[in-house]
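Lay summary

Proteins are chains of building blocks that fold into shapes. Our project writes down both the chain and a compact code for its shape. Here are two examples, one after the other.
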Amino acid sequence: MNESTDGLVVAVSVSERIPAMERRIMAAHPGVELIWTPYVEPLEVRSSKARNGGVDPEGMETPEITGELREAWARTQVLVGLDLPADAAELFPRLELFQLASAGYDKCDLATLRVMGVRLATSSGLAAPSIAEFVMGRLLAEWKHFRTLDAQQHAHVWTQQLGAEGAGRTLGIVGLGSLGRAIARRAKAFDMMVLATRASAQPGDTDPDVDELHPASTLDELLPRCDAVVATLPANESTFDMFDASRFGAMAEGAVFVNVSRGSLVVEPDLVESLRSGHLRAAVLDVTRVEPLPADDPLWDAPNLYLSPHTSTSLDRYADNLVDLAADNLNRFVEGQPLRNEVDLAGR
């Protein structure tokens, strides 16, 4: 047993208890005090915070912070959860590590965490397999006319609709991180050609999972070559409004655009117009700028748009993967080792 864990307080603030996490952490660190402090903000609040640098929105209701929660959080040094409440510095005076239970950190007030001296780690990569399957399913549904075939079945219409092969098509992945890599591997299994960009890539770099790897600055040169383009980027200043009328216009006529990262990447009116004009064959959005999407938003009725309410992640194995990550990062934290998926707050 590592003596440095004696008295360490770890709070888990997800909606339901995860017994496997409790067993795993307590087995490795018997000296830890592990407490369940449920706190999950509504989607509307989370979406607003993501659009405003993690700052809590005015006029939106957030979960009640009881006296019991305050007492527990006042002692907490490691927090595992989805959301960070307002007044974090007051609520978490001893906090040293925030392990996010999600991949995106755009909803976090990074400036406050930096001032507090808190380390931040995300759950990037945990949902990559399930989201990659979702992407391939949506692309195949479009290329194989599944929507039309389903509609014909319901209408009792027997008309052949012959789809196109995915093999031999070119898939562009904008952001070759863990999610982009998972998509690339599945696309290669379908004998597709895969082009990818990565912010750190230099001219001439290669990667075993893609046919071509390019610097992010060459995106506009790659877009016309792709039959489908998948955005798998984080939300930050460099990606805000990245896909606008100019980028959609640069894509090949009849291409499919897919966004399974963050809604802030897309200028949504420009996407709707590109679909209405027929320049893009289809688009797949699992994320939107405002969530939940307002009932009168034009996206609902955009032609050939595959829209889903941020549900590309499958949860059947997510909790198990989160247990592994949280336990591993706690070990690394205690031993003074680099964390998995740590966000460099000093550079932001």
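And here is the second example, written the same way.
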Amino acid sequence: MENSYRISNGNPVSIPSDPSDLEMRQIREKARRNFYLVESDWSQLPDNGLTSAKKDEWKTYRQELRDLDTSDPENITWPTKPE
């Protein structure tokens, strides 16, 4: 079977021949996103010890995770986790 490709950011990217491959990658990336959300739950607790500015950074990060477009799992731009 011949592979199909598309160009993304000037680079060839393989297009899966079986749509279920793409669907599985989308599911994995959504699971990864959900893991990052769970991993950062602590940041929104009232007694977390963060300043309000830091808490807002975490809140923004978490919203960016929720808004993440996983329709193209080869080209996801993950938000930067606050330090």
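What can we say about the second shape? The mean pLDDT is 86.
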